[in-house]
Amino acid sequence: QLFEKESSTYTYLLADKKTKEAVIIDPVLETVERDSRLVQQLELKLLYAVNTHVHADHVTGSSRLKDIFPGCKSVLSEASGGKADHYVDDGEELRFGNFALEVRKTPGHTNGCMTLVLSNAVAFTGDALLIRGCGRTDFQQGSAETLYYSVHNKIFTLPDDCLLYPGHDYTGQTVTTVEEEKKLNSRLTKPLPEFVELMNNLNLPYPKQIDRALPANLICGIQDTSNK
């Protein structure tokens, strides 16, 4: 579990210790040097750079990682609308060594959000479910009702002791469980009408990196340098 402080983003590096095959989830452009150094130190073969959705708060490091590790492929959900080498849909798997990440579509924050589940014991929820919270639903095809059903049907149906690792945290927390969130999540424990009303009235500020991040992330994190 790796952290990028400007956008409070968590990046996750998973690897099979025997085969050395690895996957990185939600890499950030500004921390590619750190992440690639770790991959090299551990002598891993990076197969996939996966984004849980097209981010609005940071530029993905996928394209840069592909330059450093030529065998690495970028991955997005089919519903994301972004550019990637490999697209995945609900129920598909991303294999690395003897392990596999199960793809569960969890739209609502964006159309292309997905949760990645490892052996029903660990799940990487992106921005769909945060610790005691959830991603906003007021832009990027967001829908509070869709997000509510996504979390309840695709994440809360995992075993209670399943560890949940979010895409962000703004208070220093690192991990939660299905049981904790079903009991303690301040938003998603509410009935659907109350949740929708709450999400529709958050009045959050415009993401400060969105004008830079969204165009780049739609094309795998490649930034336009033509005017520089």
TrEMBL record:
One of its GO terms (molecular function) is dioxygenase activity. InterPro entries: Metallo-B-lactamas, Mito_Persulfide_Diox, POD-like_MBL-fold, RibonucZ/Hydroxyglut_hydro. Keywords: Dioxygenase, Metal-binding, Oxidoreductase. Residues 8-168 form the Metallo-beta-lactamase domain. SUPFAM superfamilies: Metallo-hydrolase/oxidoreductase (SSF56281). Gene3D superfamilies: Ribonuclease Z/Hydroxyacylglutathione hydrolase-like. PANTHER family: PERSULFIDE DIOXYGENASE ETHE1, PERSULFIDE DIOXYGENASE ETHE1, MITOCHONDRIAL. This is ETHE1 dioxygenase.
